[in-house]
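Page 42, continued from yesterday. The earlier attempt failed because a stray header line got pasted into the input along with the sequence. Redoing it now with the clean sequence only.
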Amino acid sequence: WRVACRAPSALARMVASRTASAFSVGCLLLAAEALVPSTSAPAVPATPEVAVGIRRLPRLKAPTVAACRRATHAMSLTTQPKGLKLEALPAAETPRRWLVLLLYSLVGVLNFGMWLTYATLPSKVGAAFAFPTRWKADLLSVIVGFGYLVGAWPAGRVLANGDGGLRRGMLWASTINVVSAMLRVAGGVWGYYWVALTGQLLVGISQPFFMAAPAQLSTEWFPVRERGLATSVAILSQVLGQALIFVLGPAVGSLPTLVGWQLAGGVALLALVVFLFGDSPVAPEEGC
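This time it went through. Structure tokens are written below.
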């Protein structure tokens, strides 16, 4: 401060006073730090081992799906014990998933069309089975709901039974569709109402095997970003089957012809499911 007061000019006095103020504040801070006990951890001696341990590591990139797949495959080749089966990872977003979704949708369209076939041609039903009462014609559609209750528990067991549950469920649904279509054709040809009614009951039994599977199909076959679309398409196929049959039924106008086409379609779909609907792969996920 004495130096600041003795400076010859105002500028020199201002610079000297600012320097003295900064020096004073610094001395006060050093004194406070010396008086207050430190609570921080003691310093670690910078030995070579510690210096190596705290060295800055390079930034690692997030693993890609392909890298995780290659690493899992290599581990399965080197560390997999005999008799232990690891889940196989699929090729990333294989186009086959769309074929599987198409087959599932066609099975749903056919089944729901079979359910409401007799409701689209009520006058033809009475003539085909020679009964005057309307309730028997209505029962051909209503009994499908009771068949669903019968098939719900077995379908849940099949779909949840480990690897390949979805494929087995589709095989069961397609096979039951064919058997029910055969009974419906036989009942119409011979005029046996109870044979056709049994066929309609089987239509309901087959429904849980695919109606309970849209979310399972999208999870096992599709990546995360496509699962909403796949689930929506699978559910829409069931509604589409109900709508189409009310267009095709009156357009065809013949109950035996309509039922015969459904039998042919069921046989074709069963063959396609057997040969093209493969076991479900593990769905591709983000990261490892």
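Notes: DSSP finds 14 helices and no strands in the chain.
Reminder to self: strip header lines before submitting.
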